[in-house]
Automatic annotation (TrEMBL):
Biological-process GO terms, alphabetical: iron ion transport
Organism from which the protein derives: Vasconcelosia minhoensis LEGE 07310
Membrane-topology descriptor: Peripheral membrane protein
High-level lineage: Bacteria, Bacillati, Cyanobacteriota, Cyanophyceae, Nodosilineales
Keyword Manganese: no
Database matches in Pfam families: ABC_tran
Protein localization: Cell membrane
Coiled-coil zones: none
Name of this protein: ABC transporter ATP-binding protein
GO function terms (MF aspect): ATP binding; ATP hydrolysis activity
GO cellular component: plasma membrane
Length: 270
């Protein structure tokens, strides 16, 4: 099945239902994610953000409904064909001990290999480009486990870049990183979107970071989409209360002009 007028849409779901061990997390979801933009899934723990991302990446088989990539049902795409079009970076990925940055990044080229076409000059070029784009040339021959958290995360992103897909899905790419490394990783993803036209879809816990770096937000609660759209239209005091059960004040970020959520606590005198 194909949709008409999908030029501006990257991933679409129709009546998507996702479950773990019979426990339904997402039910009957219709969703359209814009192409060429940065989209972030936000919401409280356990609301279905990572589950939805796994469903979009075909890492979790739907109990019902369909996910479409630029109009093509991903369930019907051969695995290598999908891997050439859609890259996924799961939360807290692990690599074999002693693997170097270059060896990790080279794994991104596996979807382009077959018994007729082994490692090629094009593969070498894509790997080097990915390492250069993520500013890891000085670390290319270093074991991954000797790098800082931010450098390791950039190496994993470089692997996804070497896969050479138009769409990247990232599950909490800033988890366990300090503030400086969070900015480093998000700046890199923003650069890839702005300068390479990559569609970026990610899960973030930090609502303010999501507002600062995203064109499009999808707010989830208990497996349902509560609101979606630009940060300016989505992030309101009413929405924060509805989604996070938190009282807040929303002001304008004085640096970038995006919404800035100031949480309120009844136990702290204001």
């Amino acid at each position: 099945m194909k949709f008409d007028n999908v030029a501006s849409v990257s991933l679409t779901t129709r009546k998507l239902t996702l479950a773990y061990d019979g426990n339904v997390i997402i039910q009957g979801l219709d969703l359209a994610i814009p192409q060429g933009q940065m989209t972030t899934l936000v919401g409280p723990n356990g609301c279905g953000k990572s589950t939805l991302l796994r469903g979009l990446a075909r890492l979790l088989k739907p109990k019902g409904g369909t996910v479409y990539l630029e109009g093509d049902a991903i369930a019907h795409l051969p695995t290598k064909t999908l891997a050439k079009r859609l890259g996924i970076l799961p939360q807290s990925p692990a690599a074999p001990e002693g693997l170097t940055v270059r060896e990790l990044v080279a794994q991104g080229r596996y979807p382009h290999q077959n018994w007729l076409q082994q490692w090629s000059q094009q593969d070498e070029i894509k790997v080097e480009q990915a390492i250069a784009t993520t500013r890891l040339l000085d670390f290319a021959n270093r074991p991954l486990d000797t790098l800082s958290g931010g450098q390791r995360q950039r190496a994993w992103i470089a692997m996804a870049l070497a896969q050479d897909t138009e769409t990247l899905l990232l599950d909490e790419p800033t988890t366990y990183l300090d503030l400086a490394h969070q900015i480093e990783v998000l700046d890199l993803l923003y650069h890839l979107n702005q300068n390479a036209g990559r569609t970026v879809i990610m899960v973030l816990h930090d609502l303010n970071m999501a507002c600062r770096y995203s064109h499009h937000l999808i707010a989830l609660r208990e497996g349902s989409v509560i609101a979606q759209g630009s940060p300016q239209t989505v992030v309101t005091e009413v929405l924060v209360k509805q989604v996070f059960d938190l009282d807040s004040r929303i002001i304008v970020d004085p640096v970038v002009g995006t919404p800035l959520c100031i949480p309120l606590s009844p136990s702290v005198a204001l």
